[in-house]
Amino acid sequence: MTSESSPFQQSAPNTREIVPQNSLDLTTGPRPIPQRPWTSQDFVWWNTAGVLTSIRQGQRPHPVSPVVDPVRRAFSPDEVMLGTCDAQMLMWRKGNAEYNPSRGFFLAGGPVGLALTAAFFGGQAAMNKKKKKAAEQDAVEKWRHLAYARLTVSTHGLYLATGEGIMSVSFNDIQECHVTGPGEIIIAAANAHGSARWMLRGQWAELVMVQWAAHFLPDHPQLTTRSWLPGDWFLHARAYGYDVDTRSWPRLPGGGQSSITM
Fold this sequence. Notes:
With 262 residues, the chain is α+β, with helices and mostly antiparallel strands. The protein is 23% helix and 24% strand. The chain has six helices and seven strands.
């Protein structure tokens, strides 16, 4: 992809803030009375909303997490690591989650990536007959634990680090992504090695969906309806003084927007 056509091409940042304070689209009148405590998850959502505003305004987002692991850039020289958190990977499957039949795919390219593919999704050679039999007897399909990881989200993709190494997934490779709950998304991705679909749970999970959709699917229904956030969250944020500029955000067809936005 050339620089002219890259969805990541942005103007140079002209502020150290994610959302310039003088551009806030404020609601007039007194602030609502807080109805519940302001939590760490609210800070995550507020910072994620700020990243979306930055992208839509053509600005480069800045790191939003107090913790960012020292992960080497894999996708672009101007890539910015935004945040890191503990995460869990799950796959929809039958059988014992410890029994993982080999698959001829995954998302990280190169010899290291292929080795990590085997580490994440292979392993049946090390599986004994007892575990295999137990897996075959369990015919229930559901989301099952695959691995715990450290999730780092950047402006160009995500990195999943386990004891086996680091697996990188570019936003370019993601075909589907949607939020299924607070801190929980489902991702489908593909590259030259194949495709995979998995669930990812982590504090910065929404930051993955929001950035991917902003660049590649701006009419994503969870963006246009703001449904990646709780229904009353904008009022909740405003009650604590955390206003959000949504004027540049994708909107419903016809120019409408969710009634909860400002």
